[in-house]
Specification:
alpha/beta; Porphobilinogen deaminase; hydroxymethylbilane synthase activity; 11 helices
Length: 361
Amino acid sequence: MEQGPYKYIRDGNGKVSRVFRIGTRKSQLARIQTDSVAEKLKELYPELNLEIVGMSTLGDKILDTALSKIGEKSLFTKELENALERNEVDLVVHSLKDLPTTLPAGFTIGAVLKRENPHDAVVLHPKHVGKTLGTLPDSSVIGTSSLRRAAQLKKRFPHLEFKDIRGNLNTRLKKLDEKEDYAAIILAAAGLGRMGWDNRISQILGPEDCMYAVGQGALAVEVRARDLDILEMVSVLHHPETVLRCITERAFLRCLEGGCSVPVAVNTDVKDSQLYLTGAVYSLDGSDSLKETMQTSIAADDKSVDEEVDERVQRVGVTASKICGGAQDRAERLGIDLANLLLSKGAKEILTVARQLNDAR
């Protein structure tokens, strides 16, 4: 039964309890990701009533155009956010890399779950099994719809050719296997792992070959910022190290004003309470690039241990009131400082040209 904006159910004993509706894209991977979050919530709150609501997004519908050409930052998120705004769902599960660095007013990321492998993976056509990008024959065609991947790999493997490939994971693998159009495709290792397709990964691309996208490999739960009870409920899913890494990555991207339509890549690491961020920008063919690394301390400050953290503070869209505020501030600052360093060396010019060339393609 609906009562105001919320949904309730009555059990056999007449007890009424609220149902929390989780919005998700309809693709198989999105459902697997959403189910995994729902399971975690049920483990933590066994009494919880959850209902999963699947919906199609613009990015799922426009399959014949390269993502970077559509020019919409919230391709895979807008419809889900509309449902959140209309109180049709109460929380939404996303791949964090699909979420713009600036969220619409009234929304926040209430949980960033432990990151899985953030790197990209090479999936070969069955006839090339055992090869790597380096050993594929000259002029082999590699499928990727990501400007970031293509820019880095063109520079690193000049003997290969790169072509757009769209569709969900199932569709892309089908296109690879059933036709002779591609020698290999590049996909996120985390998505392949969640689908149980690790056996198709022939090569994981390390940072020397291809740095990853901002937020890649992490799941995020988006909620209405005013729903403090839901924010509190999902906040236990936050993974502190992932939160800090993703805050610094998102701050870097936001400062560069990068989205799907420009090649921006990152690599983060935490060692001995130090957060390391490597960030780079590329021309479309990878011939022009800027790359730098900076670091900051993320050790909890003595003074911040007892400090009340303002529940409503968002950092690049993330609300994480149980994680040291000082560490979050320093992570955000690191991203901004690194972006400004690249901008001072000419990053804006590289990205502007990349954007113009991409628009003209």
